[in-house]
Amino acid sequence: MKRKVNKYVIFIITAFFMGSLFPFAYSGVDNGLDQLKIMVDVMAKIDDSYVEETQPKELILNALYGMVNNLDEFSEFINITNTKRIKEETRGEFGGVGLRLLGREGELTVVTPLPGSPSYKAGVEPGDQIIKIDDQLVKDIPSQKAIDMLRGLVGEKVTIIVKRKGKNGKDITKKFTLKKARIVPQVVYPKMVEDKIGYVYIEDFSGHTIADFKTALADLKKQGMESLILDLRFNPGGTLDSAIELAKIFIGDNKLIVYTKGRKEEYFKEYKSAKTALYPDLPVVLLVNEGSASGSEIVAGALQDHERALLIGARTFGKGSVQQVSTLEDGSALKLTVAKYYTPLGRMIHRDFKKKGPNTTGGIVPDMVVNFDLATAKAAILQRTTLIYSPSQKTAKTEGNEVKDEQLNRAVELLKARKVLGSLNIKELSEKNSKTKEVTEA
After folding, report:
1. Beta-ladder partners of 179
2. Which of 297, 345, 348, 366 has the fewest CB atoms within 10 Å distance of its CB?
């Protein structure tokens, strides 16, 4: 084993001197060669003396995790398994059986089958407990592995056995053989509120968000919508293109939406709107909170800077950095922060999470700060988005009692007042509420 490690060490040092592994080393920054020798010494000592046998590959991978993941909160070394999952999340779709699941170690319970999915068509019901997937008992495998077994290539078959309560109250089991299909989760949730006010909650910015959002707006217009509440609370972001396209729906005239700036000139980029917007005059109130991040903050910053929407809620998360993903030779990937986002008026969205206090910059501060308990806010949104579908029932249902939503109620009040006052003067309302912009660091 020791000889094997020595060969590995020779390879690393040779690669170092050739410049193929560390092309920046010749600059002498931070005395990189000496530090590399220390790393090699540590590997050798671990191999020689650690209480359990180790593998050189695992040690190198752990070193990569530490080197990259400690740069900032968002740079990351991604192993081969997770690169596939990231691609699925970016597209906003995947191959699967169409189940929303509640997973705990040893347990996998169906929250709801998605309408039109293989599970829904087969008759899987909310509350079913999955006890077996193919030939493996769920209690014997990690919950994430169980979920991964239900995903995969379109056309693949998987067999599940579920336990449910029968009509006599006793447990019964049912077996389903399901063919995996293309699953597109719902991320846009529209409804009419009152007084011709439309409401849309967007869960994240994935590959199909904009198409779904445009369809939702068109449907709300048919129902008489004259103003809109756009809810981006707890929206963690997603693809940059989707966030920019959403802002372009409300902002026209080739205006700047966001720009990026990094150490290299190639990372300075400007993103502008088109000449015309789809809804240039629709009055908009935008809801944001501490859970609004990345793409949500790009939209919020652009609409606020161009006085195109009134922002209500709490200061946003402050995730305004650009990550570039590079695929490595073995199929793993390096996600590296290369630039930061700035609003049209030059405000840096990113917050330095190592600094504390009310004077820190970053995030988007609403025009009207309405603090709202995060747990209650989440419950208020879930009651509108967590729909339970049952093949045996004609209509979906929501769970839980009605939760009072202070931020949404304030938005409704303002838009109702607009009908009386004749306009939604964003600048005037913002100035009147300027005292509420004092931010308390959470």
Report:
1. 157
2. 345
| 83 inside domain | no
Asked if the structure places residue 208 within a domain, the reply is: yes
* Its pTM surpasses 0.85: no
Both 253 and 386 in one domain: the answer is yes
Whether 295 contacts 242, CB under 8 Å = yes
Q: Is 195 a catalytic residue?
A: no
Among 153, 183, 213, the domain boundary falls at 183
Cα distances (angstroms) measured from residue 117 to each of 40, 123, 157, 185, 442: 52, 10, 14, 10, 41
Of 132, 180, 255, 319, catalytic:
319
Residues spanned by the domain of 123: 94-183
Query: Any catalytic annotation for residue 294?
Result: yes
Total number of domains in the chain: 3
Task: List C-alpha distances in Å: 292 to 23, 190, 340, 429.
Answer: 38, 18, 17, 22
| 114 three-state secondary structure | coil
Considering 152, 183, 214, which residue would you say is the last residue of a domain?
Answer: 183
Q: Is residue 75 part of a domain?
A: no
Q: Please report, in tens digits, the pLDDT of each residue of the chain (442 residues total).
A: 444 445 454 344 434 433 434 444 444 445 566 777 787 788 888 888 888 888 887 887 788 878 887 888 778 887 766 666 566 555 555 689 999 888 777 789 998 898 889 999 999 999 999 999 998 999 998 888 888 899 988 899 999 999 998 888 899 999 999 999 988 888 999 999 988 999 999 999 988 999 999 999 999 999 999 999 999 999 999 888 999 999 999 999 999 999 999 999 999 999 999 999 999 999 999 999 999 999 999 999 999 999 999 999 999 999 988 888 888 887 788 888 899 999 999 999 998 776 666 667 789 999 999 999 898 888 888 887 877 888 988 777 776 567 889 999 999 999 998 766 555 666 665 555 544 443 333 3
Catalytic residue among 47, 212, 305, 367: 305
Amino acid of residue 37: K
Label each residue of 161-184 as H, E or C: EEEEECCCCCEEEEEEEEECEEEC
One domain, residues 142 and 281: no
Is 86 contained in some domain? no
My answer on whether 150 and 197 are in the same domain is: no
Same domain, 120 and 66: no
Judgement on whether residues 235 and 354 belong to the same structural domain of the protein:
yes
